[in-house]
Amino acid sequence: MVTETTSQPPKIFISYSRQDEQVADKIVDNFDTLGIPVWLDRREIQPGDSFLEKMNQGIGQASYVLVLFSNSSLQSKWVTREWMSALADGSTALIPILLENGTIPPLLKDIVYIDFISDHEKGLTKLTDFFTRELSVITLVKTRRGSAAIPLQKASRRELRVV
C-alpha cells in the first residue's frame, strides 16, 4: 500500500561569520531565484524573538547545513556550535564551503567540500548544480523486491536517501 504524503521542500540553513555575509547573501539570492528555501538568521530572527530558540528551530528544521568556512568563521563559537549541532543530528547533510585557505576542523575533513577559494562563480555554479540535482523530482523507484516500480510524485533525491 502506498500512502500519499505532502512534503515541503527541504530547507537549507546557512552558517557563516558576519565578515562573510556578502558571500552568504549571494548564495541566498541564487537559491531564492531557484525557489529553494533558505534559512538565514537575518531574515528569520525578528525583533522580540528568542535568538537561541530561532537558531534551534532553524537547525532542527534544516535538511542541509551549508557552513561557510573562512578565517573568521573558524574563530566563531556560533558557527562551531551550528556545524557541531548538524553533525550530531545525523539526518542533516552538512556541506562545507571553503572561502579561504585555512584548517578545516578534524571532524569535517572527510566531508567533500565546495571550493569558493579559487573562483566564487564556479563554486556557486557547483553548489547550484548540486541542489538542482539533489532536489529534482524522481518519478520512479524500484520496490524492495525489485519487481515493480512505484511512482513517487514528490520525492526528492534527499528524501529517498534518508528513507
Characterization of the model:
- The protein is α/β, with parallel strands linked by helices.
- 42% of the residues lie in helices and 23% in strands.
- It has seven helices and seven strands; from the N terminus they run βαβααβααββαββα.
- The chain has helices spanning 21-34, 41-44, 51-61, 71-75, 77-89, 120-134, 157-162, and strands at 11-15, 38-39, 62-69, 93-98, 114-115, 137-142, 149-156.
- The strands form two sheets. It has a five-stranded parallel beta sheet, with helices on both faces. It has a two-stranded antiparallel sheet with strand order 6-7.
- The chain is globular.
Strand content: 15-25%
What shape does the CA trace take? globular
The total count of strands amounts to 7
The helix-strand sequence is EHEHHEHHEEHEEH
Strand order of the largest sheet: 2-1-3-4-5
Helicity, as a percent range: 40-55%
From the structure provided, what is the oligomeric state, counting identical versus distinct chains? single chain
Derived structural class: alpha/beta
Write down the overall mean pLDDT: 82
Q: Would you identify the regions where 5 or more consecutive residues have pLDDT less than 50?
A: 1-7, 138-143
By DSSP (H or I, 4+ residues per run), the number of helices equals 7
Summarize the main sheet: 5 strands, parallel
N→C terminal distance: 16 Å
Radius of gyration: 17 Å
Task: Please name the defining characteristics of this protein.
single chain, 163 residues, alpha/beta, 5-stranded parallel beta sheet, two-stranded antiparallel sheet, 7 helices, globular, disordered N terminus
